[in-house]
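[Meeting: bench + compute handoff]

Bench side (C.D.) handed over the final construct sequence. Compute side (W.E.) agreed to return the predicted structure before the next meeting so the bench team could plan truncations. Sequence as handed over:
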Amino acid sequence: MAAVELRQITKSYGKVPVVHGIDLDVKDGEFVVFVGPSGCGKSTLLRMIAGLETITGGEMRIGDERVNDKPPRARDIAMVFQDYALYPHKSLYDNMAFGLRLRKTPEAEINKRVMDTARLLRIDHMLERRPAALSGGQRQRVAIGRAIVRQPKVFLFDEPLSNLDAQLRQEMRSEIKRLHERLGATMIYVTHDQVEAMTLADRIAVLSAGHKMQYDTPDAIYNRPAALFVAGFTGAPPMNLMDASVSGGEADLGEGVHVTLPPALVSRDGPWKLGVRPENLRLAAEPGDVVVPASVSLLEPLGAETLVSLKLGATEVIARLAANFREPPGTPVSLYLSPAHLHLFDPTSGMAHNRCP
């Protein structure tokens, strides 16, 4: 296994830049996820690590070796693709053994690696089958197994679960997480699904338009977003973001609604974006809470909880409330929130309060 270092990595197609000076360190044995919307550069960045895309600028190292100009076969990586890329005419055994045979690995060693990996992935009873006889989840296990038998320095996953249905995606997420715990391997995983990112990663790199917006633990990404984009992208539903005019330690949300801010949160008066997570809007007070008036506009019962859209000042927010909440639209309610769970973002730079210049 090996660490991966990216130093000011850029990528341009002609005169069009698509990746802008990315700095990242992936520790040996770490599981890192690149997440962001379509077109943010996450797959391009992964393909540059794999050697499938040329690097326009910067330096990339795998282990102690600079790999900018090395072809994919010389980087000692294994990649799992979105479309499985299995040979339809070969058995599962031969699909998994194919790469090792190309490298002239002794047949006894091939058999040992394939069988050990197949048992690990619980597909050892179907090695004589061909891919057409398998479900999507089983095919993905074979694709992952083909990567494992290589025993590479780094595993790369390019949206491997996006072709599966919701239940199977959840099952395969758990399988991949368990696999990382067993192998202790360095893994870099690309997805547009922030739930996958939060559940799998040791650290997450949130990307937008080719820029790294934040690189941190899932807990920090969720609870201490560094930018408006991160706050609005993570969470389901995401953080509520409201226009606020701050003056004298109070945030005016419009229509006579004011929220008192803690002294540490505000460094200057003026326009800000005020953020609060849906689970931090409550109907029952706790010590130190601030109360604000609101009215119900929409209910979305989800069984274990109810998502409630509320008119709060000049905007609408979503609160995650108890499953039995059933007040009809138009009902006035008192919302309670903790100042410790409020976030302020500069509307111009998009950066969080404590990261603004």
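W.E. noted at the follow-up: The longest strand covers residues 290-301. C.D. will use this when planning the next construct.
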